[in-house]
Fold this sequence. Notes:
Layout: E1 10-11, E2 23-24, E3 28-29, H1 30-35, H2 45-52, H3 56-68, H4 70-86
Amino acid sequence: MAENTEYKYLQPKHGGSNYRQLFVNGRIRAEVLYRETVGQEPLTPEEVAREYNLPVEAVLEAIEYSVKNPGILEADRAMEGATIKAYGLDKWPHAPRDYRPNP
């Protein structure tokens, strides 16, 4: 569950959003920045900051938030997956013919 933490750069999206997670500048989901720093070819927080033209502190805040709130991020991914499936965007020509979504 999300903590009651005051963030300098993270906030709910202005004008509403179906996503529960917080955004940087009201446009970049925290998870997007976090995912840039993990995986097979991770970037440093400084590289992500340069790529998105953000202060490195905003990227570090997004990483901390994402690590501390996996349930919120998981719920957002499930909501997004359900929307993709509901609109048939999980099938060709919108997805590769061999696309197999995670259960």
